[in-house]
């Protein structure tokens, strides 16, 4: 477990502050030097004097009612989605309609809105349009890949196959492997206990300790599982797993990272699939018991989906239709003879899962995806850990495309699988597109060069229907797993670190560029602003506010005549810059890490308990519970003294723990007692793990709020600045 830092680290390097201040001064000087015009270039020089006439098949009468037909139709469709279930058929119809609207928009942009008034305008406008086309291409590929999900089909197959497992007719040997490197013993213990509790008799559990730690060896022996280590850490996790393959014999292999706890029915739901000899791997989703750090920092963790819910709940079931799923490193079962025939775990890349699964697919093996949450793990608890994990994944994803000799994806895979790899390759460069989309409108507003030459009515006819329906249908199609605005917050925060990392990867794809493991159980005593990563967005916010004020404030103050320097299309840049300003503000606030001081997460579990202190007996129920303590509400308002010690009996599960009273309070006639567990024996510890992590109860199911509620909760953080101004003792 990482120790909390005794003093805050340096938030931002000196060169970054220097660049930031220099940029602000430069921008102000430029505007002051051009005080007789609101933009860097004379607007009449870099923009056409009048609108270019639309081609006949794109033309419309702005005075007729036809102008409102696309917008009214999209609003009607968006409203009707509240009453239409999202299934394969409805999703296919609605999203292809969105695609047609997008193609209509791209056609209009290319044929009628490019700015060729000046060589700088032509280059700027054309590059931006090219990025829009690329973004639309990526969207089209994802539309194809998620048109037909297999989640319902796979669950029905699991129901069928599990009958043979439950009856004992099919019970192959399963080796459960838990690779670990530097995770704390209490985290590893939790995973071991969860694996042992799986309702499957013919399993053997192995702890693969690449840290060679005596305490983990002792823990494994105490809990009754097998312990495997090796003399070095060659090839990281892949080498650890390959070393274990040589020392185990199970027909099937189940993999769990040391911070993941499987549910009791994990093997029951997955093992049965291997009765089909054509199936080589069953991957399940990753789900997390702690809130995503972005939403937790903003105080909206019960409102917004985590950034991985879209991938595991929507992308993977779509890829499954064409044998293109991604192996995700944990919570999966694989047939031993098939992975060994493929050469074992792939060792040449920084991560092993994606590459190993892809190599199996190039060898003709079938990997399937069961979209049922059957385990829970820990997500990164702060912005830096999140970045390091995602940057490691980014490097691993890019490395795959340099391994053509070992993993010939372009020559052996089918067209659908190739399209999935193409979309992922393009998405790896999404950070460049995101930065361009954010800074492009600001640069347009500052320089006076319009990116698009079009009137407001053209935007209302071609752009607004597509943008509006695209946002509405994403939330509906994914059943609340993805909100476009919230997704942009993630992309904004990741953009600049990803660009820097991508440049280094392109120079040397296999260089060691960062950490090889994600920290688990990280604690932090203080708030962290993370300016070292977010200063470009602080600059963007400052530049946007100053730019809008100098540009449009000049009109309001009468410094330059209104309308004299305006040309069609520049008003849209103001709207777009304002929108990006809101997204950047939310992103900056989301990256302000709040203190994490509790070693064990508390969950809102309600279970009946009996507290016995001396001769006194108190009855009540838990309001929240962790592995180290609980908040207990007594059914009768009786005072409990501080520092009192006694036994807490969990009646529904019939186990007891020794506990001490930390404090007590009384509200609305009820007494609340806050307890710290002192002694937890082996049986009680196992029961606590199962109670907390052993099933998908109401409190840890994926949330699916309405789009309007989610958007309002996100934007409301701009006005209260909760993550910045909240004080902690």
Folded structure, characterized:
This protein is an alpha+beta fold. The chain has three domains: 14-50 and 67-145 and 429-509 and 524-590, no CATH class; 151-160 and 171-414, Spore Coat Polysaccharide Biosynthesis Protein SpsA, Chain A (Alpha-Beta Complex); 608-696, Thrombin, subunit H (Beta Barrel), CATH 2.40.10.220. It is built from 25 helices and 15 strands. It has helices at 14-33, 43-46, 69-80, 88-112, 119-145, 151-167, 185-196, 214-223, 236-245, 266-271, 293-298, 309-320, 336-341, 353-362, 383-400, 409-412, 415-427, 430-447, 456-477, 484-507, 531-556, 570-590, 682-693, 707-720, 722-725; strands at 174-180, 203-209, 226-228, 252-255, 261-262, 279-283, 332-335, 366-369, 375-376, 608-613, 616-625, 629-634, 645-650, 655-667, 670-679. The strands form three sheets. A seven-stranded mixed sheet has the order 3-2-1-4-7-6-8, sandwiched between helices. A six-stranded antiparallel beta barrel has the order 10-11-12-15-14-13. A hairpin with a 2-residue loop joins strand 10 (608-613) and strand 11. The radius of gyration is 29 Å and the shape is globular. The two termini are 23 Å apart. Residues 1-11 have low confidence and may be disordered.
């Amino acid at each position: 477990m990482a120790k909390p830092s005794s003093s805050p680290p340096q938030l931002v390097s000196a060169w970054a502050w220097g660049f930031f201040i220099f940029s602000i001064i430069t921008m102000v000087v430029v505007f002051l030097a051009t005080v007789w015009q609101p933009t860097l270039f004379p607007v009449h020089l870099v923009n056409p004097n009048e609108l270019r006439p639309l081609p006949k098949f794109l033309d419309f009468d702005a005075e007729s009612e036809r102008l409102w037909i696309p917008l009214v139709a999209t609003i009607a469709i968006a409203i009707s989605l509240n009453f239409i279930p999202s299934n394969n058929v409805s999703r296919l119809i609605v999203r292809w309609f969105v695609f047609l609207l997008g193609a209509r928009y791209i056609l209009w942009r290319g044929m009628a809105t490019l700015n060729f008034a000046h060589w700088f305008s032509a280059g700027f406008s054309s590059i931006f349009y090219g990025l829009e086309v690329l973004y639309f291409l990526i969207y089209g590929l994802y539309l194809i890949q998620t048109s037909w999900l297999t989640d319902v089909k796979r669950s029905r197959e699991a129901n069928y196959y599990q009958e043979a497992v439950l009856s004992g007719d099919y019970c192959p040997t399963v080796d459960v492997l838990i690779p670990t490197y530097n995770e704390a013993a209490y985290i590893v213990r939790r995973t071991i206990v969860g694996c042992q509790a799986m309702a499957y008799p013919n399993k053997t559990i192995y702890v693969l300790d690449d840290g060679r730690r005596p305490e983990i060896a002792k823990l494994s022996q105490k809990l009754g599982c097998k312990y495997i280590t090796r003399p070095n850490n060659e090839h990281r996790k892949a080498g650890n797993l390959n070393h274990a393959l040589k020392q185990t014999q199970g027909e099937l292999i189940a993999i769990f990272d040391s911070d993941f706890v499987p549910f009791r029915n994990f093997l029951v739901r997955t093992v049965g699939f291997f009765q089909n000899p054509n199936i080589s791997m069953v991957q399940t989703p990753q789900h997390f018991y702690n809130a995503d750090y972005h939403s937790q920092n903003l105080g909206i963790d019960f409102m917004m989906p985590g950034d991985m819910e879209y991938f595991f709940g929507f992308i993977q079931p779509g890829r499954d239709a064409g044998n293109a799923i991604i192996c995700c490193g944990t919570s999966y079962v694989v047939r031993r003879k098939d992975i060994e025939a493929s050469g074992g775990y792939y060792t040449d890349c920084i991560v092993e899962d994606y590459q190993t699964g892809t190599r199996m697919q190039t060898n003709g093996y079938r990997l399937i995806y069961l979209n049922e949450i059957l385990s829970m793990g820990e997500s990164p608890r702060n912005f830096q850990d999140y970045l390091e994990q995602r940057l490691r994944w980014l490097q691993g994803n890019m490395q795959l495309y340099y391994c053509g000799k070992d993993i010939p994806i372009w020559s052996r895979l089918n067209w659908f699988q190739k399209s999935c790899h193409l979309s992922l390759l393009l998405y790896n460069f999404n950070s460049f597109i995101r930065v361009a989309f954010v800074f492009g409108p600001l640069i347009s507003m500052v320089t006076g060069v319009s990116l698009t030459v079009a009137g407001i009515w053209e935007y209302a006819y071609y752009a607004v229907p597509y943008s509006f329906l695209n946002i509405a249908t994403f939330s509906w199609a994914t059943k609340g797993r993805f909100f476009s605005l919230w997704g942009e917050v993630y992309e904004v925060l990741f953009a600049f670190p990803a660009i820097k990392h991508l440049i280094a990867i392109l120079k040397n794809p296999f260089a060691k560029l960062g950490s090889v493991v994600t920290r688990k159980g990280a604690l932090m005593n203080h708030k962290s602003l993370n300016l070292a990563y977010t200063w470009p967005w602080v600059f963007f916010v400052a530049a946007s506010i100053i730019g809008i004020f100098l540009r449009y404030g000049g009109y309001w103050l009468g410094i330059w005549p209104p309308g004299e320097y305006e040309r069609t299309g520049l008003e849209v840049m103001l709207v777009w810059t304002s929108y990006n300003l809101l997204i950047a503000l939310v992103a900056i606030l989301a990256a302000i890490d709040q203190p994490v001081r509790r070693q064990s997460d508390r969950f809102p579990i309600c279970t009946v308990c009996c507290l016995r202190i001396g001769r006194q007996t108190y009855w009540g129920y838990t309001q929240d519970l962790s592995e180290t303590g609980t908040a207990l509400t007594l059914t009768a308002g009786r005072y409990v003294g501080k520092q009192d010690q006694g036994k807490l009996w969990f009646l529904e599960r019939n186990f007891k723990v020794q506990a001490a009273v930390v404090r007590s309070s009384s509200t609305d006639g009820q007494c609340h007692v806050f307890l710290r567990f002192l002694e937890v024996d082996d049986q009680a510890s196992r029961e606590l793990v199962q109670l907390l992590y052993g099933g998908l109860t109401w409190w840890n199911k994926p949330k699916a709020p309405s789009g309007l509620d989610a958007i309002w909760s996100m934007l409301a953080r701009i006005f209260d600045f909760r993550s910045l101004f909240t004080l902690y003792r």
